[in-house]
Automatic annotation (TrEMBL):
<dbReference type="Pfam" id="PF13614">
    <property type="entry name" value="AAA_31"/>
</dbReference>
<dbReference type="InterPro" id="IPR050678">
    <property type="entry name" value="DNA_Partitioning_ATPase"/>
</dbReference>
<dbReference type="InterPro" id="IPR027417">
    <property type="entry name" value="P-loop_NTPase"/>
</dbReference>
<dbReference type="InterPro" id="IPR025669">
    <property type="entry name" value="AAA_dom"/>
</dbReference>
<feature type="domain" description="AAA">
    <location>
        <begin position="2"/>
        <end position="206"/>
    </location>
</feature>
<protein>
    <submittedName>
        <fullName>Chromosome partitioning protein</fullName>
    </submittedName>
</protein>
Length: 279
């Protein structure tokens, strides 16, 4: 089983789109694939499950979800009021569950998802205080043999959940938008990954930087990408062009490989998938 985390501390760089579309291609090609959504915005969950995973003031988040799993990790069930129960019977019952209990099938063959929850972040302090940073890694080990690929979408921050994902993963993909602000943010991002490698997960590899929204005819994107390469950063050769098709894909809750297999953007994703799979 190969586990990839898609991580960037900067928002709006296409993390969820990249996570879902690479995972969908993986499943389309016959690999049993799981998406774990650790971003409270739940974009990956909604992309794959549509209205079922869409929440609002009067519509609660889809359950079971990843927040429920971390409640289990804490050994209690969080009530809607935000209080932690401590019934021993509930604790013993919950301890027997693993990540499989929180999986939802998507409409796409071979592709499952553990959805996110908007209130996930409220658990971070309690999880940190009880030193639960390795629990996601340990739970994923129990899925060995049940999935071929796992893709983890992360929040746009370096927090408990992002660190848990990096500790649990074999490889990290870094989405990158071609602008100066994204380039400036790369240094601290890579420093965080290297520190995680040193302190928690010496098996973690930076698989590469995924250049998103790349306009080959424009001067600035070409210059920025060349600067990254000149600095020795692992820029993946297959870059993703901008296209209105991505918005249509989100709107229809259809990954590109199912919506428009022969489109230029879909073909770029296929080439990117083949590149990382050959590494």
């Amino acid at each position: 089983m190969r586990t990839r985390v898609v991580f960037n501390q900067k928002g709006g760089v296409g993390k969820s789109s990249i996570t879902v579309n690479l995972a969908a291609i993986s499943a389309y090609q016959g690999l049993k694939t799981l998406v774990i959504d650790l971003d409270p915005q739940a974009n990956s969950s909604q992309y794959l499950l549509g209205d079922d995973a869409t929440y609002s003031v009067d519509k609660p988040a889809l359950e079971p979800n990843i927040e429920n799993y971390f409640e289990e990790v804490l050994g209690a069930t969080q009530s809607k009021a935000g209080l932690l129960g401590n019934a021993i019977g509930s604790l013993l019952k919950n301890r027997s569950k693993g990540l499989e209990s929180y999986v939802h099938q998507t409409p796409f063959k071979q592709l499952d998802v553990i959805p996110a929850s908007p209130s996930l972040g409220a658990l971070a302090h309690a999880l940190e205080a009880k030193h639960k940073i390795y629990k996601l890694r340990d739970a994923l080990k129990l899925l060995e043999g049940k999935y071929d690929r796992v893709y983890i979408d992360t929040p746009p921050a370096f927090n408990f959940f992002t660190l848990s994902a990096l500790i649990a993963a074999d490889r990290v993909l870094i989405p990158f938008d071609c602008d100066v602000f994204s380039k400036r943010a790369l240094q601290s991002l890579i420093e965080n990954v290297i520190e995680t490698q040193d302190d928690h997960n010496d098996q973690l590899e930076i698989e590469g930087i995924v250049v998103n929204q790349y306009q080959a005819q424009a001067k600035l994107p070409r210059e920025v990408v060349q600067q990254l390469k000149d600095e020795g950063l692992p820029v993946l050769e297959n870059m993703l062009p901008p296209s209105v098709l991505m918005k249509e894909s989100h709107h229809q809750n259809q990954p590109l490989i199912y919506l428009a297999k022969d489109h230029k953007l879909t073909q770029a994703y296929l080439s990117l998938f083949n590149e990382i799979e050959q590494k």
